[in-house]
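Entry type: protein chain
Record version: 2
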Amino acid sequence: MIEFKNITKTFHTKDKNIDAVKDVSLEISKGEIYGVIGLSGAGKSTLVRCLNRLEEPTSGEIIIDGVNITSLNKKDLNNQRKDIGMIFQHFNLLDQKDVYENIAFPLKLINMDKDKIENRVDELLQYVDLQDKKYTYPSQLSGGQKQRVAIARAIATNPKILISDEGTSALDPKTTQSILKLLKDIRDKFNITIVMITHQMEVVKEVCDKVSIMEGGEIIEENSVEILFRNPKTNIAQTFINTMSSDIQEEIINPGDFQGRLFRLTYLGHSAEEPFISQISRDFDININILSGNINKLQSTNVGHLIVELTGENQEVGKVLSFLKDNNVNMEVI
C-alpha cells in the first residue's frame, strides 16, 4: 500500500547541508501497524512526515495505492491528504475551541453538511468514550483525554492511513496502554494502516507488526517484531530491547569473571514456556548458572531471554548447544 523508494531529505543551512534521511526504501502493507524507532535525531519523524509531504523529499518517490504523491500538484496533494490522519506528541488541539469544534474541524474543511458533522462527531465521541466532554475545552482535559480527542479528529474523515508521531511519549504508562489499545482497535475495526514513530520499544512490542530501526538517517534493521526480539542484528536494536527490562544487566557481565562459557539464549513462542534449564541439568553432565533473564509478551507470542554460564567439558557443552538448537532456541556467545 505504501512504498518509499530511495527517499532522501537534505536540509540546507548557511554553513552546510544536513542529510536527515538518506536513500531510504521500505514497504508497508495495508492494515499493518508499522513502527519506525530510533533515538532523537535519527530521522524517523522527517521520513514519515514526507508521507504527507509536510516535509518535501529532496529525492525519491512515495507511492500510496499506486499514486506517486511526490509528483502531485497542490490541489491533488490536498485531496490525497484527506486519506492521511495524524496525531502528535503534544496533541496539537485548538485551545480556543471545545472538543466538538476540534473534532469537527477537518469535516468542515471538506464542506460536510452541518447535520452530518454533528452525527459524525457524536459517533466519534462515543467511540473514544468522551461523550460527556463534548463541550469541554482542552485545558480541562487530562493528557489521555486530549490524545483521544486528537485521535477522533485524525480519523474523522475515514482516512486510509494514520500517522502517530510520538503519540504516546507525553503520557504516563497506564494512559499509554489505553491509547495503544485504542489504536489497535482502530486498525482492526477500520482496516486503517498505522505508521508509528517512536523511541519506545514498549510501544513497538505492544502494537506493531513490523518495525524499522533508524540511525543517522538510514534504516539499519527491518523485520517483524517477533524476529527482531528473537534475533536483533544490530547493537542499537539490542540496546532498545534491553532497556525494556531492568532484569538484564549485560553491561556489568565481564566474561573474565566466570570460569564457564557465557551464552545469551533466546526463546520464541511455545519454547519460552518449556523447562529447558531443568532438562539440561538432568540430562547432561554440565553445570548451568542463570545470570539474568526475562520474558517479553508480544502481540501473538512470547520471547524469552536468558544469560547463562555453562561449565563442563567442551564435548558436553557442545551436546547442550545441539539440544537447544534442535528445540528452536537461538544461541549467542558472549
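Comment: Residues 2-231 form a domain with the Rossmann fold fold (CATH 3.40.50.300).
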